[in-house]
Amino acid sequence: MKIAILGAGISGMALARFLEQGGVSRDSLHLFEAGSVAGGLCHSKTVDGFTYDVAGGHILFSKDAEAMQWMKDEAGGDDAFVTCDRNTKIRFDDKWVHYPFENGIGDLPKQANFECLKGYVDAWHQRQLTGSPAPKDFASWIRWRFGDGIAEHFMDPYNEKIWKRPLEKITSDWVAGRVPDAPIEDILKAAIGVRTEGYTHQAIFYYPKTGGFQGITDGLAATLGDRVRLNTPVTNVRKKGDRWIVNDEEFDVVVNTISLTYMPDLIEGMPADVAKAMRELEYNGLVTYLIALDRAEHPNLSWIYLPQKSQGPANRVTYMSNYSPGNAPEGKTSFLIEITTPGGQPFPGLDLEEDVIQGLETAGLLKRNEILFTDRSQVNHAYVVFDHEYHRRRDLALGWMTEQGLHPLGRFGRFEYDNSDQCVIKARAKAAEMLPDLLG
Ligand SMILES: Cc1cc2nc3c(=O)[nH]c(=O)nc-3n(C[C@H](O)[C@H](O)[C@H](O)COP(=O)(O)OP(=O)(O)OC[C@H]3O[C@@H](n4cnc5c(N)ncnc54)[C@H](O)[C@@H]3O)c2cc1C
């Protein structure tokens, strides 16, 4: 029995480990990885003693305690992790606003506080009066849920930065469970300065002591050893009877974790409508900058959001050296900056860095003379974009893959907004589904 797993990010490697733990021989597993390192979006980079996560700041947290413990155990156990208290804020002019924004409106200048509160109450009242259902497009959803004030001061500018599209073009499908849903009493209290939490999810998170978030996938890769074929891009997949040929080698089973958008170029014999649907799935890329700082200590923050245009193109800043002492040399600190880019388009040029630094200066986050050096990374696929055609295209793509017996898995293998813990949970479920056939 030969099993090909396409892509050695956390999804592919977790699947391999679950199959092995379920009784499949390690020798049956063959992971194809284009990169020179396994880990995919969990990849981290170390430059001159400063470590950062190349696909933006990553933290380990899961509602599924068993999955989270499994991830820790695969990466050296509890002792290999730092336990961090989450402290996230929004930068608004020269103020720090409690996160989530609606629970922090009391931190705003008085006029903005009033506008946000009035809008929130008006929107709430409107929903009570009319019982209007949640609008489908995200722009209308924001005003329906939060009102005009929060839309104008935070939700619109912040989401325009992240999504790089007019917000009418995306749906509100993805917000459930991701955008907190605060009761009106909490917002009334927040506006008059009584602290309400709003978001207790991830109050504590974990981070590998060394090697950045990649410490987790390094653990998996070390166990899988030579089963992961690095520098081995998949270039061709085709069916031969009830078996599969991957790069001229025969396999019984194929699981794909590579982005669906690449599949039409790799799989032979795909119907034109399926290929079109896959190619047109929308996504965003990401540019990240490590900023190494000659600064001994950071404030006690985990990450912050930058909603305002004057703060430059970055939407989020992670206080990377706060995650683990292993992330920066003694007496130094670092930032990790994220800037999304429209998927499939050329990445911004080198001018971007100057815009980012100017924005951070305006936001009062750094002084230029503190910067030791910067390092830039970019990833093609960072965020799934939930445009109005998302479900139709994805259903067609996944339906065809499944019908062919090509198991789809992973954040872009299934085009889902999954964090690494959900990738692990889905890999565990996929292994459970496959094991009876593989062992029977
Ligand atoms: C900005 C941002 C912040 C995030 N924050 C968190 C967080 O805090 N916590 C968290 O748990 N998760 C977080 N995530 C999500 C997490 O990174 C992903 O869910 C996870 O890494 C996806 O893993 P995957 O294996 O499904 O996909 P990938 O990591 O994309 O793996 C796919 C693999 O396929 C390989 N590949 C591509 N093409 C080919 C080819 N032709 N041949 C062979 N191999 C190929 C790639 O090199 C890659 O290794 C974040 C993601 C982003 C973008």
Which structural traits does this protein have?
seven-stranded mixed β-sheet, oxidoreductase activity, binds flavin-adenine dinucleotide, FAD/NAD(P)-binding domain, five-stranded parallel β-sheet, alpha/beta, 440 residues, 19 strands
Description:
- With 440 residues, this protein is of the alpha/beta class.
- Among the domains are: 3-42 and 211-279 and 387-439, FAD/NAD(P)-binding domain (3-Layer(bba) Sandwich); 89-191, protoporphyrinogen ix oxidase, domain 3, CATH 1.10.3110.
- It has twelve helices and 19 strands.
- The chain has helices spanning 10-21, 65-74, 110-130, 138-163, 184-191, 214-224, 263-266, 272-280, 320-323, 351-362, 390-404, 420-439, and strands at residues 3-6, 29-32, 44-47, 50-53, 81-85, 88-92, 95-98, 204-208, 228-229, 237-240, 243-246, 249-251, 253-256, 283-293, 303-305, 316-318, 333-342, 371-384, 406-408.
- The strands form five sheets. The protein has a seven-stranded mixed β-sheet.
- Strand 6 and strand 7 form a beta hairpin.
- Helix 1 crosses helix 6, helix 1 crosses helix 12 and helix 3 packs antiparallel against helix 5 (184-191).
- The longest helix is centred in the middle third of the chain and has 26 residues, at 138-163.
- The chain starts with a strand and ends with a helix.
- The relative contact order is 0.20.
- The mean pLDDT is 96.
- It binds flavin-adenine dinucleotide.
Topology:
Elements: E1 3-6, H1 10-21, E2 29-32, E3 44-47, E4 50-53, H2 65-74, E5 81-85, E6 88-92, E7 95-98, H3 110-130, H4 138-163, H5 184-191, E8 204-208, H6 214-224, E9 228-229, E10 237-240, E11 243-246, E12 249-251, E13 253-256, H7 263-266, H8 272-280, E14 283-293, E15 303-305, E16 316-318, H9 320-323, E17 333-342, H10 351-362, E18 371-384, H11 390-404, E19 406-408, H12 420-439
Parallel strand pairs: 1-2, 1-13, 2-9, 6-15, 13-19
Antiparallel strand pairs: 3-4, 5-8, 6-7, 10-11, 11-12, 14-17, 14-18, 15-16, 16-17
Helix pairs in contact: 1-6, 1-12, 3-4, 3-5, 8-11
The protein binds flavin-adenine dinucleotide.
